[in-house]
Here is the input.
Amino acid sequence: MNNVTSLIRSIRAEQTYLLRHSVLWPDKPLDYVKVDNDVDGYHFGAFFGEDLVAVISLFVDGDEARFRKFAARPNCQRQGIGTLLLNHVMTEARRLGAATIWCDARLDAADFYRRFGMEAVSEVFYKGTIPYAKFSRLL
Ligand SMILES: CC(C)(COP(=O)(O)OP(=O)(O)OC[C@H]1O[C@@H](n2cnc3c(N)ncnc32)[C@H](O)[C@@H]1OP(=O)(O)O)[C@@H](O)C(=O)NCCC(=O)NCCS
Here is the structure.
């Protein structure tokens, strides 16, 4: 990881908004990246020093976990930080009693999710012009 010490910490939902917005939906208003039940979620950030460089949010409903709004700063992508965060979320989801985990995956990240044993379980659908599919796996 480029000799940079990174650390995963629990953060508040509001701390995720700027990265959610700038990485995922820069053309939408900031409010677009807020999730109705953010208050019920578990939010995690990866830090390079004091800089928040990637975020992910976990929602657990019974034995089903979902993660949303997974975003790493462009100049910090492909250095292993997303892997650390997703592994952390899977561990937390199991600890919280989930038996499956899913996400709405952008198709351009599908190969990333396949590395974690996740597979498409829906048809392709669109949010705006961006193609997605639901990806899922057992925990
Ligand atoms: C998807 C994302 C969170 C992954 O985080 P990351 O820190 O870049 O991921 P990692 O560095 O841990 O990647 C692990 C491996 O997957 C690969 N990978 C990362 N993103 C990929 C992608 N979109 N497609 C295919 N492979 C990908 C990496 O190259 C790396 O491969 P390597 O081990 O051979 O070097 C990040 O790239 C990102 O924010 N992308 C833009 C926003 C996005 O698409 N979010 C997901 C929406 S569903």
